[in-house]
Amino acid sequence: MIWTAVIKGSALMTFVQGAMALVDKVFGEEILPHRIYSSGEAAQLLGMERLQVLEMVRAGTIKAKKVGDNYRILGSNLVEYMNR
Question: Considering the entire predicted model, what is its pTM?
C-alpha cells in the first residue's frame, strides 16, 4: 500500500516538474511572482552562484523558507530583491 503511494507521488512529482519546465519555456527567464524557486534556480535567474544566494538568504537580504535542508524562495521575494 505504501509503495503505491510512493509510486503515485513520484509520478505526480515528475508531472509537476514537467509542467514547471513547460512554464519556464513559455515565459523564458521571467521571474514569476507566485512560483517557488530553489536556491539554484534563483541563482540562475539572478546571474550568480548558488552559494551567493544562500549567503544572502542567511543574511536576510533575500527572504526564503527552509524546507528540510533546502531553501525555497518565492518569486515575489526575488523581484523585491531586484527592485532594491
Answer: 0.66
